[in-house]
Amino acid sequence: xxxxxxxxxxxxxxxxxxxxxxxxxxxxxxxxxxxxxxxxxxxxxxxxxxxxxxxxxxxxxxxxxxxxxxxxxxxxxxxxxxxxxxxx
Length: 88
What we know:
By secondary structure, the chain is an all-beta fold. The chain is built from no helices and seven strands. The chain has a four-stranded antiparallel beta sheet with strand order 2-5-7-6, with no helix packed on it. Strands 1-4-3 form a three-stranded antiparallel beta sheet, with no helix packed on it. The chain is globular.
């Protein structure tokens, strides 16, 4: 197992990660939102849905999600979730 980081972008929701990857944390590095993930780099890949919501700007449906964390970029605050429905 290794820890890898992946950039997360508001306009992209589906990310291909190694199967059974465990999301450890979220943060900002060089102005970009990143997630750090414990992975088996040789594992088969699966699609995971990561969503970013700014504070107060977006209505969020009641899909099942796991909260990953909150990040601050300048005056903006973003909340990052993994959507658990509709996954492979």
